[in-house]
TrEMBL record:
This is Aspartate--tRNA ligase. InterPro entries: Aa-tRNA-synt_II (IPR004364), aa-tRNA-synth_II (IPR006195), aa-tRNA-synth_II/BPL/LPL (IPR045864), Asp-tRNA_synthase_2 (IPR004523), Asp/Asn-tRNA-synth_IIb (IPR002312), NA-bd_OB-fold (IPR012340), NA-bd_OB_tRNA (IPR004365). Residues 189-192 are annotated as: Aspartate. GO terms for molecular function: aspartate-tRNA ligase activity; ATP binding; catalytic activity, acting on a protein; RNA binding; transferase activity. Residues 144-434 form the Aminoacyl-transfer RNA synthetases class-II family profile domain. It comes from Anaerocolumna aminovalerica. Homodimer. HAMAP family: Asp_tRNA_synth_type2. The lineage of its organism: Bacteria, Bacillati, Bacillota, Clostridia, Lachnospirales. It comes from the Bacteria.
Length: 434
């Protein structure tokens, strides 16, 4: 017997040997004279064969969701997809569920309402496909991190309890901080910019909080933001270029390292060789012309317009991504840098992926006077931002960056629509549990 517990991925190296393996009983499929016992291990479901001829215990001792140590023979079997078969000899039960599961989790999909899927999250995530989404998400984060470290970005961790909202608007959670008012961070914006002055290139993958009352498939009140910020840029297009390379890297990385999950979830990865870009104003006109729609809001997209624009771009170029640039200044936060040739427009962009905005980014104001002027114009209390403005006052290179919503990116990769599917424990206006 191999004297260590082995991983599902290693089984094929042990044909002809007796091994120990552990996991939870996912499913027991009784056939005549034998049974398939599916064992859920860390990443893969492993099929074992139970047969009274060689299994030295009573199958009734095993229940779905009991944790077990199994001793088994790895036997060559050409009829099996893997080329081997795992014959259970003995099983040691480590824990038994107290009750029947309230919901069936071991079919291809958890066939239930979104409500149930989320209410029973600690167990519905045990479903093979549900959990594969988060394995893939791990891959996405790993990909971001590996790429950015390779580009000499420094990973940082900024505070989530803050003194001022970075993104403006009323979408901010207030909290009582020892008798003073503080907030939950809407984004790491201020801090990542400050750290450009220290490390030149920085990134962070962390939760952010938005007190948005939207009840939609694309809004969460807590989501994971992938942020990067870089100094010494020549134009905001440097940031778009960096993002394009990052996305390319991720697709290759997922293909290489997460093919098991990609196959399980039937994900076809999009091509990101080149991402087309269009100015906001032109995009509005294009959509209006193609779909004979009246433009109602000249300063922002309606969600429907984002979908339509993605359709047009895909039809014309084949790309599932599109950069939209030069957003109107009045719709962008106070730190956004205006276009020198047109003060109404900012040097900023959004990235749409399959009809959904997944990224916002752009160049920031680095000049102290320019920043203070703009804040005054917006009737902001400049004194409140003293610590933010310290970096401007004492010298900053031209810089910019972006924020990408991890859940939105994940669902679009899966060709799905609801961000809750890509959130372990979603927080929305109706939900703070489990
Ligand atoms: P913005 O506020 O556009 O920009 O957010 C960046 C990206 O975060 C995602 N996102 C959300 N995802 C889920 N639920 C929400 N409620 C939600 N709100 C936003 C989107 C969006 O594109 N500081 C800037 C970024 C920057 O310029 O660096 C910012 O936070 O995918």
């Amino acid at each position: 017997i191999v004297n260590k517990t082995i991983e599902a991925e290693e089984i094929e190296n042990y044909i002809g040997q007796k091994i120990k393996i552990h996991g939870s009983i996912y499913k027991i499929r009784k056939m005549s004279g034998f049974a398939f016992v599916l064992l859920r291990t860390k990443r893969k479901i492993v099929q074992c064969v139970y047969n009274e001829e060689f299994s030295q215990f009573d199958l009734n001792l095993l229940k779905e969701e009991s944790s077990v140590y199994v001793t088994a023979n790895v036997v060559k079997e050409e009829r099996s997809k893997t080329g081997w078969e795992l014959r259970i000899l003995e099983a040691k039960v480590l824990s038994m569920p107290q009750e029947e599961l309230p919901i069936v989790i071991n079919n291809k999909i958890v066939d239930t309402s979104m409500e149930n899927l989320l209410d029973f999250r600690p167990i519905t995530l045990r479903n093979e496909k549900e959990r594969a989404i988060f394995k893939l998400q791990e891959g996405i984060c790993n990909g971001f991190r590996t790429f950015l470290l390779g580009q000499k970005f420094t990973e940082i961790h900024t505070p989530k309890i803050v003194y001022a909202g970075a993104e403006g608007g009323a979408n901010i959670f207030k909290l009582d901080y020892f008798g003073k008012e503080a907030y939950l961070a809407q984004s790491p914006q201020f801090y990542k910019q400050m750290m450009v002055g220290v490390f030149e290139r920085v990134f962070e993958i962390a939760p952010v909080f938005r007190a948005e009352k939207h009840d939609t498939s694309r809004h969460l009140n807590e989501y994971t933001s992938v942020d990067f910020e870089m100094g010494y840029i020549e134009s905001f297009e440097d940031i778009m270029e960096m993002e394009t390379k990052m996305l390319q890297f991720i697709m290759d990385y997922l293909q290489e390292t997460y093919s098991y999950e990609l196959e399980l979830l039937k994900v076809a990865l999009p091509d990101v060789a080149e991402i087309p870009s269009i100015k906001f104003k032109e995009a509005k006109e294009l959509i209006s012309k193609e779909y004979k729609r009246e433009i109602k809001d000249f300063d922002d997209f309606e969600p429907e317009e984002e979908k339509l624009l993605s359709k047009i771009i895909e039809k014309n170029t084949g790309s599932h991504f599109v950069f939209v640039t030069h957003y109107p200044s009045k719709k962008r936060p106070f730190y956004a840098k205006e276009d020198r040739n047109n003060q109404e427009e900012t040097l900023s962009f959004d990235l749409l992926f399959r009809g959904l905005e997944i990224t916002t980014g752009g160049q920031r104001i680095h000049d102290y006077n320019e920043q203070v002027e703009k804040m005054k114009k917006r009737q902001m209390t400049v004194e409140l931002f003293e610590s933010y403005l310290m970096m401007h006052k004492y010298g900053m290179p031209p810089h910019g960056g972006l924020g990408l919503g991890l859940e939105r990116f994940t669902i679009k990769l899966l060709n799905q629509d609801n961000v809750r599917l890509a959130t372990l424990f979603p927080r929305d206006i109706h939900r703070v549990t489990p």
